[in-house]
Amino acid sequence: MSAITTHVLDVSRGKPAEGVPLELERRGADGAWTRAGTGTTDADGRCKTLLPAGAALEPATYAIRFDTAAYFVKVGVPDAFYPEARIVFTVRAGAGNHFHVPLLLAPFGYSTYRGT
User: What mean pLDDT do residues 31-50 have?
Assistant: First the structure.
């Protein structure tokens, strides 16, 4: 399992959000963002493969971009307000080896928290 995982729940439908395209980025010392991984949520709304298996998690600032527009079009809600959700978070040295970043999603809002 990846050291960074996510779980997307569509609270407007009361179901896991299957098929949400994701991109993980890492901010370098120069402030530039580089892609660290990609994925798509599974039937349970989870993505456990954002980082390659066994990849070390380095202290840095990371961001997960959720392509919410693609998901909502797929489920028949083309007028959703947020075309993407981008969650930026910091991994500090000694902070643990796994970070779970859930997203609670609706067509006109979203929420997140640090999961376990």
Answer: 96
Please tell me the distance from the alpha carbon of residue 84 to that of residue 79, in angstroms, as a whole number: 13
- In order of their start, the domains of the chain are 4-112 (2.60.40.180)
Q: Looking at 54-115, which runs of residues are DSSP E strands?
A: 60-66, 85-91, 99-106, 109-112
- Answering whether pTM is above 0.85, one says yes
CA dihedral (99, 51, 111, 28) in degrees, to 10, reads: 90
Percent of the residues in the chain that have a pLDDT greater than 70, as a whole number: 97
- Helix (H) or strand (E) run with residue 7 in it: strand 4-10
Closest to 98 in 3D by CA, of 35, 39, 48: 48
Q: Where are the alpha helices (DSSP H) in 1-116?
A: 68-74
